[in-house]
Amino acid sequence: MFSSFRLPVAVVGSVGLLVLLAAGTVRAQFPRRGAMPARPAPIPANPSGTIEAIGRGMMRIKSLAGQPYILQIQKEAKVHVTGTAKKDVLGVGGLIFISFFAEVDKRQSEVQNKIGELTLFTFSPERPLGAFPGARPAVSADPAEGDTKSDAKTDAAEDAKSDDPAAGVAAPDTEKPPAEARKSRSRRRRSRARGDGEGPDIDGFEIVGRITGIDKAGKITVYVPNPYFKSPVQIELTEDPHIDLDLTDLRSLAMAKPGDKVIARGQQVAPNMVQVNEMAVQLVEPFTMVREEPDKKSSRRSRRSRREEAEKEEAAEGEKAEEKAEERSEEKE
C-alpha cells in the first residue's frame, strides 16, 4: 500500500523541482528591471514678441530676435488683455462692467458732466461694484497755488476753532449772536446732515458699475449699488471718449489679432513650443466691432481703370507691330 503511494509523491516532487529550475532559468534570461528614470523637470520659458497667427487654443508669435514660437494656451491660463477700445463695444458680450469718475447730485441721482474717460474691466471679487467718494485728485502744475490738501486742512482747523467756544477768549466788547441766528445755523447744520440743504448736494465719486442698457440717444444706464444716491444712474459720453481695457477673462483673447504684443510664461514642451500658464496681451490698435467694408464704387472704378490701361497697352503694342511691318516692307522694296 505504502509503496504504491510513494510513486506519485516522487513524481510530483520531481515535477516541482523542474518548475523551480525553469523559473530560475527565466529569471536569469530576463533580469529584474530597476527603477524607472525620473522625468526631466520642465524648463521654464518666457517668450515675448508679436502675434503672427491665432487659432483655437494656439498662437504663433515672433520674438524680437525673429525666433518663432508656438504657444499652447491652457484652459486654466491667466490672461490679461489691455489696450483701448471704441465706444461701439460698450455692452457687447461681457464688456458691461465699467468704471469712471464723475460728480453726482446725490439728491437727484444725476451725473453732472459728460464722461470722457472710462475703463471696461472683468468683474471679480477683488474689484467690487459701488460708488466710492472722492473724485480723481487734480494735480496742480503751478507751485504758486500751493498744496490744496494742506489748505483744506487749515480751513477745516479754522472752522473747528470758530465753532469751539473754548478755542479762545472773546474780547470784552464782542457780543454773542442772537438766539434766532443760532437757531438758523443749527437748522442749516441739521439740513446739511440730512442732505436736503439749500442748493444741489454734489460730490465726486469713482463709480464702478454694470451697464444695464443703452438707449437710442446713446445714454447709458449703469447699476451702481451704494448708500449715497439711488441706483441706477444714466451717463452720457463725449463725442470721442478714451476707453481703456483691463480684462482678465480667457474669452478676451478673441480681441487679439496679428500685430499685437504678447508676453507669456510657461514650460517648454518642444523646440519653439511653450505651454502657457500666464499671458499678457497689449492691443496695438483700438478694438472695435465695426468692420470696414470695401467701397463698391471704388472697386468698380479700379476694375474699369485696369481694363482701360490694358486696352491702351494693347493698342500701343498694335501700333508698334504695324510700324515694324511697314519698315520691313520698305526694306524689301
Give the termini separation. Answer: 141 Å
Tell the overall outline: flat
- Using only C-alpha atoms, the radius of gyration works out to 41 Å
Beta strands, count: 14
Q: Unreliable runs, pLDDT <50, ≥5 residues?
A: 138-191
Largest sheet: 5 strands, mixed, barrel
Which class best fits the helix and strand makeup? alpha+beta
**Overall mean pLDDT score?**
75
How much β-strand is present in the residues? 25-35%
- Main-sheet strand order equals 2-3-4-14-13
Secondary-structure element series: HEEEEEEEEHHEEEEEEH
Count of alpha/pi helices:
4
Helical fraction equals 25-40%
What report would you give on this structure?
The chain is of the alpha+beta class and 333 residues long. Among the domains are: 48-136 and 198-282, no CATH class; 293-326. It is 29% helix and 32% strand. The protein contains four helices and 14 strands. It has helices at residues 2-29, 148-163, 179-194, 296-332; strands at 43-45, 48-55, 58-63, 68-85, 97-105, 110-111, 115-121, 130-133, 202-214, 220-223, 233-235, 237-247, 261-270, 273-282. A five-stranded mixed barrel has the order 2-3-4-14-13. Mean pLDDT is 75; it is low at 138-191.
Ordered list of secondary-structure elements with their pairings:
Layout: H1 2-29, E1 43-45, E2 48-55, E3 58-63, E4 68-85, E5 97-105, E6 110-111, E7 115-121, E8 130-133, H2 148-163, H3 179-194, E9 202-214, E10 220-223, E11 233-235, E12 237-247, E13 261-270, E14 273-282, H4 296-332
Brief overview, please?
It contains four helices and 14 strands. By secondary structure, the protein is α+β, with helices and mostly antiparallel strands.
